[in-house]
Write a structure and sequence with these properties.
There is one protein chain. With 82 residues, this protein is of the alpha+beta class. The protein has one domain: Winged helix-like DNA-binding domain superfamily/Winged helix DNA-binding domain (Arc Repressor Mutant, subunit A). It has four helices and two strands, in the order αααββα. Strands 1-2 form a two-stranded antiparallel sheet.
Length: 82
């Protein structure tokens, strides 16, 4: 896992932002957002996926579950100590 990409993604999710694959490419140079989201989920974060569509195009939009915002910092610190 590219921890720097995951850290940047998590920081934006903590701010209440949503992230799409195009956002991830532009902001972090991340070509595999779904893999980074999976890494964060394996660390214990609850990340919601909402499918968006415009015409024939469709994509995922990710956000941190509302109840997770208060728990994010302690959980991330515990994962790094392991």
């Amino acid at each position: 896992m590219s921890s720097s990409q995951a850290d940047l993604i998590l920081a934006d999710l903590q701010k209440g932002q949503t992230i799409t694959p195009l956002d991830a490419l532009r902001r972090y140079g991340c070509l595999r957002l779904a893999a980074r989201i999976d890494d964060l989920r394996r660390e214990g974060y609850t990340i919601e996926t909402r499918m968006r569509r415009s015409g024939r195009k469709h994509w995922a939009e990710y956000s941190l579950a509302r109840g997770q915002l208060e728990l994010v910092l302690p959980l991330r610190a515990r994962c790094r100590q392991s």
